[in-house]
Amino acid sequence: MIITPRGGLISGQAAAIDLGAGHASDVLRRGPVAMIAQISSAAAAGTTARGELIGKLRALLDDVKYYASHRGDYDRAQTRTLSAANTDLEALIPVLDGRMPLIIDADSMAEIDSALALARDYKLKIMISGGAEAWLTADRRRRERSVLTGAMNNIPGSFATLNQRQENVALLRRAE
To answer: What contacts 125, CB < 8 A, 6 or more positions away?
Structure first.
């Protein structure tokens, strides 16, 4: 997976790659395959609280819906002010249409629950990245909600990962 950092809420795109030797153009198989968003760092998104960050992401998704149905008006500068540039809004249309998944970086149970609420409210295909406390939400997470998680650090890296367990993946698998 190649991640192009952009900062803020939407942090980039993921692409399918081969891990062989060569230049970027040689290993790229298909791109983009997903958009990547983060809800774990309010400061990185220019907000002061996670709730504000979720509100900002919801406003962005609402603006994408509005932009998709008012492109002509936007081109003539006859729309309301939107929270992102038209290129960013355009890039997110496949996410709202269900043609591309949104990978949401979330570790804590509250962040994962917020991501699941976004998926439900906007009918998004999502994948949880990180998922340190995903085992705590296994009963609320449907089977089609993928969790991209890895090995646990010896010492939690943040408050959001305090409930991380070595058997996170096994517990998620058992809950399917």
So the answer is: 95, 98, 100, 101, 102, 119, 144
Which DSSP category does 161 fall into?
A: G
CB 149 within 8 A of CB 134: yes
Tens of each residue's pLDDT in the chain, 176 residues: 333 334 455 556 665 555 566 666 665 565 677 888 888 888 888 888 888 999 999 999 999 999 999 988 887 788 888 888 888 899 999 999 999 999 898 888 889 889 999 999 999 999 888 888 877 777 665 555 677 666 555 555 665 555 565 666 666 666 66
d(CA 120, CA 56): 17
CA-to-CA distance for 92 and 141, rounded, in angstroms? 24
Best CA proximity match to 132, nearest among 104, 114, 151: 151
125 backbone φψ class: left, alpha, beta (φ>0; ψ -120 to 50) = beta
Q: Which two tokens stand for residue 45?
A: 């998104």
Rounded distance between C-alpha atoms, residue 155 and residue 60, angstroms: 35
**Full DSSP string of 77-144:** T-S---SS-HHHHHHHHHHHTTSS-EEEEE-SHHHHHHHHHHHHHHT--EEEEE-TTGGGGTTTS-TT
